[in-house]
Amino acid sequence: MPIAQNPLSVEVTLPREDVALLKVEGYLDVDTATEFQHHLANQLHHGRRHFLLDLSAVPFMDSSGMNIILRVYQEARELPGSVHIISPVPAVLRVLDLTGVSITVPVSANLDEALARVDAQPEGPRVPDA
């Protein structure tokens, strides 16, 4: 069995307490999707509700990667929360468009745009500040 030529790297930062930014680098495919899923599950476990997925350094994504994104999207919606894809390369954006994932999961050009979308979405009833 060949060794993966493009290992996956996931860097997690927290722009806000309930927002996780995951900068993904490498192929997001059947060989690496489980690792990506573990990072997302860890952030869910730590109470993050909004997930910003920076795919600008992902040259290729197959259905395994898309399934993980859709799965975390479903989980985040129940919190309520959200998932946003940031700056996918043209080849990945084309796959997201052709499969309809980009209709379900918003695609933003940059981090600021994604954070603005997080702020703009309804979150249900809020407790007023005291």
Automatic annotation (TrEMBL):
Residue ranges annotated as coiled coil are none
Among InterPro entries, the record links this protein to:
Anti-sigma_ant, STAS_dom, STAS_dom_sf
- Indicate the secretion signal residues: none
Name the CDD domains for this protein.
STAS_anti-anti-sigma_factors
Classification via Pfam families? STAS
Domain named STAS is located at: 17-118
Origin: domain of life: Bacteria
UniProt similarity note: Belongs to the anti-sigma-factor antagonist family.
Q: What is this protein called?
A: Anti-sigma factor antagonist
